[in-house]
Amino acid sequence: MHEPETHLVPLVIGAALGSRPPVRVFGTDYPTPDGTAIRDYIHVVDLAQAHVRALEYLWEGGASDVFNLGTGTGHSVRQVIGMVEQVGGREVPFVEAPRRSGDPPELVADPAKAKRVLGWQARWDLEGIVKTAWRWYSRPGLD
After folding, report:
1. DSSP code at position 96
2. Does any domain span residue 142?
3. Nearest-CA neighbor of 72 among 120, 46, 111?
4. Which residues, including other chains, have CB under 8 Å from residue 102's CB and lie 6 or more apart?
5. Per-position DSSP letters for 25-39, written without gaps between them
6. How many domains does the chain have?
7. Does the N-terminal or the C-terminal CB of the chain have fewer CB atoms within 10 Å?
8. DSSP state of 60
9. Residue 140 counted as domain residue
10. pTM of the full predicted structure?
């Protein structure tokens, strides 16, 4: 864990568990299906496996390059809140706040190059990400 926490999934889980204040939903008027910002969430295991595959690629003689790592699927802030409620069986307290300056409506990775060049693709979906994060953040003795 780190402070200040800036990642949505831990903030939403913390709010559901009562260990953090209500989640602030920055912007509900984006041109998205539910009005909240859409982002591509990646599981830490997928991210680590992509880095291992990139190292293998370099060791095999591949050239240094840049890759987008993600699932290629976006989820809104409201969808993340809903998934945490579903997985944790608890309501997530949240407050609506104005958009933050510079926040785009949607940011979703295009992992096609990573799949083509590295043979890598994300395996965890949003439900799996939230389930493993819920287990981590709800374990006994975690402050």
Report:
1. E
2. no
3. 111
4. none
5. EE-S-SSSTTSS-EE
6. 1
7. C
8. T
9. no
10. 0.93
**Reported confidence tier of residue 1, pLDDT bands at 50, 70, 90:** low
Sheet architecture: strand order including 106-107: 75-76, 38-39, 106-107
- Mean pLDDT, residues 6-19: 97
Query: Residue 87 and residue 83: Cα distance in Å, rounded?
Result: 6
User: Is-contact 21 15, C-beta < 8 A?
Assistant: yes
What's the mean per-residue pLDDT of the chain? 96
Read off the CATH number of the domain in which 110 is found.
Answer: 3.90.25.10
Chain segment 95-124, per-residue pLDDT in tens: 999 999 999 999 999 999 999 999 999 999
Structural domain that includes position 52: 8-135
Number of Cβ atoms within 10 Å of the Cβ of 115 = 14
Omega prior to 31 cis, within 30 of 0: no
Strands (E), the chain: 23-26, 38-39, 75-76, 94-97, 106-107
